[in-house]
Amino acid sequence: MSKTRFTPGPWVVINRSGQVFVRSEDGTLAIQDIKLADARLIAAGPDLYAAIEELLAVVIDLMPGLAKISVQDYRRVNEAPIRARAALAKALGEADR
After folding, report:
1. Of the residues 1, 6, 22, 33, which has the fewest C-beta atoms closer than 10 A?
2. 91 CB-near residues (< 8 Å, 6+ apart)
3. On the CB side of 24, how many CA atoms lie within 13 Å of its CA?
4. DSSP state of 27
5. Is 18 strand, coil or helix?
6. What's residue 97's pLDDT?
7. CA–CA separation, 16 vs 18, rounded Å?
8. Phi, psi (5° rounding) for residue 2?
């Protein structure tokens, strides 16, 4: 995976009289005039990205010890990192490469 190119978090949602903004902690405006639910999702982006990265690392580290689980569970554990990698690539703009 490439190094992230997006504005690092944390980001905060500001709702002033129905006008919604997402800003980085240093005050840099990330996006404005959006729905509150979208702003919350966007603001959570850096945290979600970090959580997926961490989860992916844990799953990969634990996979060798999973030989004793059922075939269905192993399939789920095996496919989760594939989906996590795809989500991280999409966040980095690398999904179509």
Report:
1. 33
2. 4, 6, 45, 49
3. 9
4. -
5. coil
6. 46
7. 5
8. -75, 160
For 14-39, the pLDDT digits (tens) are 888 888 888 888 887 778 888 888 88
Which amino acid is residue 75, in one-letter code?
R
**Among the listed residues 3, 31, 77, the one whose alpha carbon sits nearest the alpha carbon of residue 12:** 31
Concatenated DSSP letters of 46-81: HHHHHHHHHHHHHHHHHGGGGTTS-HHHHHHHHHHH
- The residue assigned the tokens 């554990």 is 77
SS3 15: strand
What does the angle CA 47 – CA 1 – CA 85 come to, to the nearest 5 degrees?
A: 65
Tokens representing 80? 């989760």
One-letter amino acid of 17: S
